[in-house]
């Protein structure tokens, strides 16, 4: 009997080892998929997933294809939820010369996102140590860091920000030729899919991430947006793959929002025109800026839903995952916000540490550490499992 027991025990150990190996190997495969997806979304072909060269539309098509491959069902009759909004774009000329020296877009200078087209040569008048005026409608600002964004309005003023670390001279003259194009009805699409629950299909756990970024500034410079937010989208897709292979009692929904960078417009449109009943969403996890994690992570709405946050912390401590989870209160800083305003319980996760690139041309996949991808993946899976009890 003792020998048999030892054989059974050995068999159990072998089975357990095999299970753990397959689990770890599966996560490693997901890591490979995540990296491949980030590389794809940040590639030149998608041109910053923005407003010129069809970047956002190409990303939307790619995500729809991934949803189909994974086996997600479309919400209602289509993965895409189309909407329109105004946006200022920079499709062509992007020339700046200061003191006769040509500057590189994105690295040496950026143009303010509301700026109109302009083609001028002018002298620069010093206003103070960081501000210089050329014309009544043209100014130059010296900055320590260049951070770009998206504008839905067109200004009469053109502002140019110059990286003062790269340009040591006092600006005296400017030669500027910038082409902007204001589009009053730019078309974008949220990408929406779900997996039907096996026991409670009318109860939904929702995972969201915005797929848009800043696009391009001129015809030669684009903003890759690896951490913001290719990492979030790739993590969402890897979770979708997991849930497609592991059906759950609740339905699991997945939404990749457009136009987050333009003012949370995609998520706002979805909330105002929901493809699922908002009352059926039991909890929402929004992923944005999740490509690091050396210094832990932050949870927005932690103080709004203290019981859920306590559960998240409990799981994290039990499984020894993220080094530190920082609580934060309500904030309108990502796509969870309008859901919360409509009474949908939601957390927004973002990680800290690692690269400091943000809304600039240096947010590239090769510098993104993905430090806590595996742990974040496990945390979300475990949290959702406990929420379904």
Alpha-carbon distance between the two ends: 40 Å
Structural class: alpha/beta
Give the oligomer, counting copies of the same chain as homo and different chains as hetero: single chain
Please give the count of helices. Answer: 7
Count every beta strand, where a strand is a DSSP E run of 2 or more residues: 18
Unreliable spans: 1-28
Q: Which CATH top level class of the largest domain fits?
A: Alpha Beta
What's the CATH architecture of the largest domain?
A: 3-Layer(aba) Sandwich
What would the average pLDDT be, to the nearest integer?
Answer: 93
Radius of gyration: 24 Å
Task: Briefly say what this structure is.
It comes from Pedobacter ginsengiterrae. This protein is an alpha/beta fold. It has helices spanning 2-41, 55-70, 226-245, 265-272, 306-319, 337-341, 373-387, and strands at residues 73-74, 80-89, 94-98, 101-102, 109-111, 118-123, 125-126, 131-135, 138-143, 158-163, 173-178, 181-195, 200-210, 250-257, 281-287, 297-300, 325-328, 346-351.
Key attributes of the depicted protein:
9-stranded mixed β-sheet, 30% helix, alpha/beta, Aminopeptidase, 18 strands, 2 domains, 389 residues, 7 helices
